[in-house]
Structure formats: C-alpha cells, structure tokens
Amino acid sequence: MTPVVALSGIVKRFPGVLALDRVDVDLFPREVLGLIGQNGSGKSSLVKTIAGVHQPDQGEMRLRGRPVRLSSPREACGLGIGMVHQEQSLVGALTVAENIFLDKPTDFHGFGWMRWRRLFDAARRQLDKIELDVAPDVPVATLGFAQRQMVELAKVLAIEETVEGEIVVLFDEPTSVLGRSDIEALFRQVRRLGSRASVVFISHRMDEVLDISDRVYVLSDGVKVAERRRGETDPDELYELMVGRQRLVEDRAAAPRRPPPAPLLEMRGLGVPGRVHGVDLRVGAGEIVALIGVQASGAEELCRALFGLHERVTGTIALEGRSVRIRGPIDAIGLGIGYLPAERKAEGMIAGQSIAENIALTFGLGCGRGGMIIDRRRERREAERWADRLRLKAPGIGERIDRLSGGNQQKAVLAKWLLGANLKLLVLDHPTRGLDPGARADLFAAMRDLAAGGLAILMIGDTLDEVLSLADRLHVMRDGAVTRSFDDLAAHPPAEEDVVRAMV
Ligand SMILES: Nc1ncnc2c1ncn2[C@@H]1O[C@H](COP(=O)(O)OP(=O)(O)OP(=O)(O)O)[C@@H](O)[C@H]1O
C-alpha cells in the first residue's frame, strides 16, 4: 500500500541542535499513527515538517506517492494537510467563524462585502462536529483556554470541506489542556476521521496513545528508535523505550504517617464574584493539597485569587496565622507565594529572553525588595541547579526560552518558581501539562522534596491518579464551591466514582 505521507532521511537542524536525524516515517491511508518521546525529542519538529511549517535541511517527503517540497502551512492546507498546534494560533480579535476559515479558500467574500450568515452557518457545522457549544459570532478573545483549543480543532476539521478526497490531520499534543469530556469528544472525531483521513497524534499520556493509535513511533534525541503496533506493546514498555529507565510503581500506603501540620495558609469563606463561593481551605507547611474539578469548577480562579490576580475577592486569607491582603502578584511574591499559571506561554514566561533570565525573574524580584543587591552569580547557579534537576534539555542556560520545545519551556517556567528565595506556599495550576512521563516523575520527586523541606503546596491536578500519587489531601470543586473533601489520601484513597460524582 502506498503511504499517504512518506518521509525519508529527514534532517532538521536549529542553531546548536540536531532536532531530526535522518528520520523515516510512513503514514498509511486511514491509520492513526501515535508519536511519543521525551520533551525535546523532535516530535513537534517532525509534524511541523509534514505541515509545511519547517523545511527540512535534508531528506524527501512524498505525498500520495509524489515528491513535494512544502514552503508554507497554507500550501500544506491546500493539499489537505492540517495541524492542531500545541501553541494556539487563533487571532483573538476575530470571531470564532472567521478564525475557522481564516487560512482556507472560501467564497464568503462576495462583491466586496462579507456574507456573514453563510460564514456563521458553515462555522456552526464545524463546531457541531466536535459538539462545541460556542457561538460562531463571538471574538475568540472572550473564550477560555480549553474552548480555544477546541476551536483550533474545528479549524483543522474544516479542511474536510475545502479539499476533495483523503486528508492528513496532525495533532501536536491536543489533549494536554483538555478536560475528560473534551478529550472524549476529540477522540470520537479522530475515530470518525479515520474513515477518510490519516492522522498523526502526539501525546505524553501513553494509555491515551495506545487507545487511539494503530501504530506508534518512539523518538529519542531526534532519532526514531522504535516502532510498535497496537497490541504489541503496553505503557510500561513505551515508558522504558522513551525514558530509558523503568517506571517506578509507588507504594503510597507505605509512606509514614505524619501528624497534621500547623496551617500555613488558611482561607475562610473565600469568594470571587460569579466564580468562587464560600471556600474554606487549609494547607499546612510540608503538605501537598490538591484541587480537582471539571472546566469552570472554580479551582483555577481560586488559585488566581491567591496570587492577587482577581480584584474583588471576598472572605479572609491568613498566612502563618496573620491575616493578609493580596492586591496583586507583587504582594503575593512578597508574602512568599509562588504561582505557576496554566497558560505558561501567556503568563509564565518572557519570550525573547534567555532561560536563565526567565528562571531568575521571580528570584530577582524576591531578592531585590528592600534595596538588597541581587547576586547574579548565585541566581545563575541556582537556575542551573533546577534546570539540571528537571533535566531541562537546551544547548545552554543562555538559550532563548522561546526556542525550547514546549515541554522544556514548561520546565523552565517551573524552575523559576522552585528556586523562589523566600517561598512558603507554591500554587501550581496543572503542573504536569506538557511534560513527558519521565519529566513528570522528576517533578513529582522535586515536589515531594520541597514539601519535606517545609514548603506548602496547593495544586490543581489533571487526573485522579496524579493526585493520588502526590497529594496528602484532596478537595473536589464544582461550580465554584468545594463539593467534597478527602483526607489522608495515602491511607484511604477514594474510589474514582466518588470523586467523579462530586465533580459533575
Ligand atoms: N524554532 C526553534 N529554534 C531553535 N531550536 C528549536 C526550535 N524548535 C525546536 N527546537 C529544538 O529542537 C529540539 C526538538 O524540539 P521539538 O519541539 O521538536 O521537541 P518535542 O519532542 O516536540 O518536545 P515537547 O515534548 O517538549 O513538545 C529541541 O531541542 C528544541 O529546543
């Protein structure tokens, strides 16, 4: 059978980095091909080459048997290749409908004016495909992060309307920001697409890759190191192939019980108008407390309120027994609170600056207060220590942060908070997003060490498994309020049904 896409001997270099080293790929008609590998192993570079974003330095690409050299994503799109990007590519000021058809040849412009009705109807059809209840005429800037991700998906699925015959759809980690119901809607689409499309799917969740893919390629340092068919492998083998070490199964029940710590953070009746109501919550020094909930559960807003990112917060917050007012991030940092936002790209990093400068940002702020001189050498040493600890892959700590792979950018933003000078409370919104399974294990170990050293950690978990392997206590949130709490998770892990029932 002729592959729809065949890459042979593809080499892609960036300054100081060999991102793809003579990679061969065959994508057959109507198959779903999974792509896994550690952060920085070359997965995005590979799909971006197929999508016309990158031009390879060497090697050949064939599309439906014919050699092609794609000079742009637009050209790829015209040939039926679409990509759902890891970093979102929508234009905030334009409507959902305009975004969906932005890069496609359409007849919505007629005699100098826009045929809005037609455009909105066509967009509605795309949104219905993914069961997305968003109005086509609202500006994208008014949507939440996960909704924007789903609009990205609708945008790519709309290629079906403009291209005859089979199409190629590339997903670069589409699920890392989605909740469970959105992931299920996405998977239904991927399976439906299987009847007329070939799909490449990148994900760090190995059970997910095995669930959706017919075949899996494993990349390591730009080299394709293994290929497996579904049914020939399992998550443990995939973990070993990509991380190069065995997956540790943790026995949480064996962990020694600690006495309940004195509360470091205590909130009473915390509210954010329209989003969070009457939350009482306590986090002790050395304790890891998790929040979990579906989209708009209020967990994210609660964390943002703690970092001073909401103006009108009601209720009280006490730190180490003293009532505090947090009017903005500077107040929060001054009080020893660190915050890792879910939208790291928009809020967590300064593109164009180096890894070292980004990591040192908050450390510098903490040290600079009260006229203290910032010790740059120590700053750099600390930054290097955390970069090492999280196995951040980069040519050097002086490299620009926006040139790193997505997962390594996440690590740099994480490191920024982990080295906070006078940190007492660390608030982590979905800390494992974008991290490969090995990096997750490294982060979990670092979080446990930090907690053992007395840091209080409040985190929003992506999955119950993640929460159970890490946290001491769990609060489930729904519609802005805590619906159920579980203590002493190590000794009494809750049943999944009980947690899910409290979430929905
Ligand atoms: N535009 C760029 N400029 C410089 N280097 C780059 C650029 N894009 C990628 N790289 C480098 O190429 C290598 C492969 O990156 P790539 O994004 O393909 O990895 P990945 O497997 O997708 O990682 P992740 O899981 O973190 O998303 C990395 O070392 C990265 O720093």
Automatic annotation (TrEMBL):
<dbReference type="InterPro" id="IPR050107">
    <property type="entry name" value="ABC_carbohydrate_import_ATPase"/>
</dbReference>
<dbReference type="InterPro" id="IPR003439">
    <property type="entry name" value="ABC_transporter-like_ATP-bd"/>
</dbReference>
<feature type="domain" description="ABC transporter">
    <location>
        <begin position="249"/>
        <end position="504"/>
    </location>
</feature>
<keyword id="KW-0762">Sugar transport</keyword>
<dbReference type="GO" id="GO:0005524">
    <property type="term" value="F:ATP binding"/>
</dbReference>
<comment type="similarity">
    <text>Belongs to the ABC transporter superfamily.</text>
</comment>
<keyword id="KW-0067">ATP-binding</keyword>
<protein>
    <submittedName>
        <fullName>Ribose transport system ATP-binding protein</fullName>
    </submittedName>
</protein>
<feature type="domain" description="ABC transporter">
    <location>
        <begin position="5"/>
        <end position="246"/>
    </location>
</feature>
<keyword id="KW-0813">Transport</keyword>
<dbReference type="Pfam" id="PF00005">
    <property type="entry name" value="ABC_tran"/>
</dbReference>
<dbReference type="InterPro" id="IPR003593">
    <property type="entry name" value="AAA+_ATPase"/>
</dbReference>
<keyword id="KW-0677">Repeat</keyword>
<dbReference type="InterPro" id="IPR027417">
    <property type="entry name" value="P-loop_NTPase"/>
</dbReference>
<dbReference type="InterPro" id="IPR017871">
    <property type="entry name" value="ABC_transporter-like_CS"/>
</dbReference>
<keyword id="KW-0547">Nucleotide-binding</keyword>
